[in-house]
Amino acid sequence: MLSTAAALRRARPDADLVLSMDPDHMPWGARSDDEVIGRALAGARAAGDPRPDAIVVPCNTASVHSLAALRAEFEPRTPVIGTVPPIKPATASGDPIAVWATAATSRSRYQTGLIERFAPDIAVTQVACVGLAEAVESADARALDEAVSYAADLTPDDVTGVVLGCTHYDLVSERIDAALGRRASLFTAAEAVCVQTLRRLGAAPDPDAPRTGTVRVLRSGRPDTLPDSALGYPAGAFLALPPDGRSVAAEVRRP
Hints:
Largest sheet: 4 strands, parallel
Organism: Halostreptopolyspora alba
Mean pLDDT: 88
Distance between the termini: 24 Å
Pfam families: Asp_Glu_race
Keywords: Isomerase
CATH architecture of the largest domain: 3-Layer(aba) Sandwich
Helix content: 40-55%
Strand content: 5-15%
Structural class: alpha/beta
Order of helices and strands: HEHEHEHEHHEHHEHEHEEHHH
GO molecular function, one term: glutamate racemase activity
Protein name: Glutamate racemase
Strand order of the largest sheet: 5-4-6-7
Oligomer: single chain
């Protein structure tokens, strides 16, 4: 969720953010549909005291399987914004594309439906990126190189666009570019999700607003701080910057 949260923080530095992570039950990619739905509901409920103005689901796997259940519970009072693999913009050139995603998203009917809808006449290769989300979570350089290389080897040479169908992958876009030899443009969803969130709230971007917004972190429902692995990425370090001189650690105290 780091890339989406960072996009929201850049757009509205005065907004309070609650980052509800689920490290105790990761990875989600190999879990059943019902398990993913249960974890997504648990994460949203944990962030709900006080109830947030909006619930953003910055995860393709969670969105693919859980949006209906989340909206049934929280809407219309609280808008729920999901993350959709940006397949539509990637097809604009009409050239072959690849969609990198977790195993769960790659096998989902939802993603297949997006491809059928937006790329009916375009060659699309679905690449299940085994171990990549987990490698990003751990920030293990060797595991990252191996997982990115594995996915790159499964990506045909003629693709001109690669859809990053997991928001974890945004954090290592430079590694992906290097592995692909920069032969393909990368398409990510973070900025689009940010725009949709503000639209649903009836708010406008205001990047020059006072940086007074706080960042709270929940890890499987427990108050915590961003892990060191997250701080190693630019988006994580940006989120950890103090709001108007106060430390994020002061905002998120352990019980």
